[in-house]
Specification:
Low-confidence stretches: none
Radius of gyration: 15 Å
Shape: globular
Strand content: 25-35%
Helix content: 25-40%
Strand order of the largest sheet: 1-2-3-4-5-7
Structural class: alpha/beta
Distance between the termini: 43 Å
Number of strands: 8
């Protein structure tokens, strides 16, 4: 059965999410990040694309420590068996529509600009942000078209690069 819908992740999904993140990223770093975000109670939303007892897709949205009310999209994963079929785009665009268009929230992502621009994020809107991860691959989606000046303070689970 093809995965074709998303829903809120449940505690019963956590092991499948871990397996998906390891498969999609080839290591345990993202799975550990999500476990640490859960422990820190920094997660705002977790969305899963169920695939039987497994997860075909997943995205996490956490709260920035600052600016207040801003959200961070990371990680986003699609199982290697289901990549390049539009599932990641489906999940991220749906989230941007809901978070930015529906709830009026500001959402930041650090990642592939080519992909995330097609989902509603803009690098030019993040040009005046300061981040411990740099801003070269930082993109922003927000309900207004300003270019905000802000310093991003991530939850503790995101360790600054060494």
């Amino acid at each position: 059965m093809d995965p074709s819908f998303t829903r809120e992740a449940r505690a019963a999904d956590h092991d499948a999410i871990d397996r998906l993140l390891v498969a999609a990223f080839g290591g345990n770093n993202e799975a550990k990040l999500v476990r640490d975000l859960r422990a820190e109670k920094a997660l705002f939303r977790e969305i899963v694309m169920p695939w039987g007892d497994e997860a075909a897709g997943y995205l996490a949205v956490s709260r920035f420590t600052a600016p207040e009310g801003w959200l961070c999209l990371a990680p986003v994963a699609v199982h290697p068996d289901w990549q390049r079929e539009g599932r990641g785009m489906f999940m991220v665009k749906g989230l941007v529509d809901e978070m930015v268009g529906g709830l009026g929230r500001t959402l930041v992502v650090l990642g592939d600009g080519k992909f995330y621009r097609r989902c509603g994020f803009l690098a030019t809107r993040a040009a005046r942000l300061t981040s411990p991860f740099g801003t070269e691959n930082t993109l922003l989606a927000a309900p207004d078209m300003t270019v905000p000046v802000a310093t991003l303070v991530y939850p503790k689970a995101f360790a600054a690069p060494q």
